[in-house]
UniProtKB/TrEMBL annotation:
Gene Ontology BP, a term: lipid biosynthetic process
UniProt GO MF annotations: oxidoreductase activity, acting on paired donors, with oxidation of a pair of donors resulting in the reduction of molecular oxygen to two molecules of water
Domain of life: Bacteria
Record lineage: Bacteria, Pseudomonadati, Pseudomonadota, Alphaproteobacteria, Sphingomonadales
InterPro entries tied to this protein: FA_desaturase_dom, Fatty_acid_desaturase
Name the UniProt record assigns to this protein: Fatty acid desaturase
Keyword tRNA processing set for record: no
Length: 358
C-alpha cells in the first residue's frame, strides 16, 4: 500500500554529474555468473516452508505462553521467521514460475493470504522499479528521494509502517467487499491500495485477462480471511490478548521491512534517469563479515545493489556471485563503493543527507 506524501527540501542548485556505466564491472557481472542463473526448487521450498512453519509455531507459543519473557522471545522468533517467509514475495517477481512450479500458490497459501500480503501486491509493481528508464524517477513505485527530504521524513517513513496490519485488514475486510457494490471504488482500490509501493503518486493499472482472474481468486481468499478475522475478534472467539500479539508481531514485521527498505538505497536521485552503474551506486550491499543483515535483510536482500546488476539471479546464488566479483575486480572498481558495514551507518548517512542545505 502507498504511504503518505513526504515533504521535500528544495532542489540543490548544483546539478549532479551523470555517472557513466562501468563496462568492466557490468561485463564481469554478466560473464562470471552465467552458471548461477537457475533457481534450485529444493532450496526455495525448504527455506520458505521452514520459515512459515517456524513463524506460526513461534506465534502460537507467544499467544499461549505464561511468562512474559517467553512471550517476548517467541514473538521475536515469530517476527523474524514470518518476515523471512514474506520476503519470498520479492523472488516471485523475478524467477520464472515454470522454474518453480506451484511456488506462487504455496506463497499465497502459507504467507500471502494469512498475512494479507498476496503475491499480486508485488507482481506487476516491482518489475517497474528495475526498468532502466524508470528507476529513481517519478514513475518508480519503490523510490522516494528520502535523502533529499526533510529530516523528520525518515522517522515518519518508518513509523507509518507500524499501521500496516490495520490498514491491510481494512483494505481486504472492508474495501474489497464494498468495492463490488460502490461505483468507482473498485478502480480506486486497485490503483491506490493494491501495491507494496512507497511512491504516493504511483497508480497501478487494472489487471486484465488471466491476471485479473488470478487476482480475483487471491483477493477473494484475502477478503474472506480478513472478514473472518474481524468476526472472530468481534465475537470473542479470538481473545483480545491473542489478537494483540498477532497484530504486534505483524506490525514488527512491517517496521523491520521498512527499516530494511530505508537502507536498501541511498535515495539521492532527484528524478532523472540513471545509468545501470548509477543505479548500482545508489543501492546497497551489506555483505559478510556483518552477521545481523542475515536477519533484517533475508532472502538475498543483503545484496540489494548486486541484485540491481543481476535482477534475474536467484537469492541463493547472490553470495557466490559477490565472492566471484570481489575476487577479480580491481580495488578501484565502483563495485566496492556499494558495500556497507551495517544498518546504523547507513541510517546515519541518509539522515545527514537530509540535513544538508539545499
Amino acid at each position: 500500500m502507498t504511504t503518505t506524501t513526504f515533504a521535500r527540501t528544495s532542489a540543490s542548485p548544483t546539478a549532479r554529474v551523470p555517472i557513466a556505466d562501468d563496462r568492466a564491472m557490468l561485463k564481469a557481472a554478466a560473464e562470471l555468473t552465467r552458471d548461477l542463473n537457475a533457481p534450485r526448487p529444493s532450496v526455495y521450498w525448504a527455506d520458505f516452508v521452514a520459515s512459515a512453519v517456524l513463524g506460526y509455531a513461534a506465534l502460537g507459543v507467544a499467544i499461549v505462553a505464561g511468562p512474559l519473557w517467553l512471550t517476548l522471545a517467541a514473538g521475536v522468533v515469530a517476527m523474524l521467521a514470518l518476515y523471512r517467509g514474506m520476503s519470498f514475495i520479492h523472488e516471485l517477481t523475478h524467477v520464472k514460475h515454470s522454474a518453480l512450479p506451484g511456488f506462487r500458490l504455496g506463497y499465497n497459501v502459507l504467507i500471502g493470504v494469512p498475512m494479507l500480503v498476496p503475491s499480486f501486491m508485488y507482481e506487476g509493481v516491482h518489475n517497474l522499479h528495475h526498468a532502466r528508464t524508470r528507476y529513481g524517477t517519478s514513475e518508480d513505485p519503490e523510490y522516494l528521494p528520502l535523502a533529499l527530504m526533510k529530516p523528520w521524513s525518515l522517522p515518519l517513513f518508518v513509523l507509518i509502517a507500524a499501521l500496516a496490519p490495520v490498514a491491510l485488514i481494512l483494505r481486504y475486510g472492508v474495501l474489497s467487499p464494498l468495492s463490488l457494490v460502490v461505483p468507482g471504488l473498485r478502480r480506486a482500490v486497485v490503483e491506490r491500495y493494491s501495491a507494496l509501493a512507497i511512491n504516493p503518486h504511483f497508480r497501478r493499472r487494472m489487471p486484465e485477462g488471466e491476471a485479473a482472474k488470478q487476482w480475483n481468486r487471491i483477493e477473494t481468499a484475502c477478503a474472506v480471511w480478513a472478514m473472518s478475522l474481524i468476526a472472530l475478534v468481534a465475537t470473542g472467539s479470538i481473545s483480545p490478548r491473542a489478537f494483540a500479539i498477532m497484530m504486534i508481531v505483524a506490525s514488527a514485521v512491517a517496521v523491520v521491512n521498512q527499516l530494511r527498505t530505508l537502507v536498501a538505497h541511498l535515495w539521492e536521485n532527484d528524478g532523472e534517469p540513471m545509468t545501470v552503474t548509477a543505479q548500482y551506486l545508489d543501492s546497497v550491499n551489506v555483505p559478510p563479515p556483518a552477521t545481523l543483515p542475515a536477519l533484517w535483510a533475508p532472502v538475498g536482500l543483503r545484496y540489494h545493489a548486486l541484485h540491481h546488476l543481476l535482477p534475474g539471479l536467484p537469492y541463493h546464488a547472490l553470495g557466490e556471485a559477490h565472492r566471484r566479483l570481489s575476487a577479480v575486480l580491481d580495488q578501484d572498481s565502483p563495485y566496492y563503493k556499494a558495500n556497507y558495514a551495517g544498518m546504523p551507518g547507513l541510517v546515519a548517512k541518509i539522515a545527514r543527507s537530509t540535513m544538508l542545505p539545499r
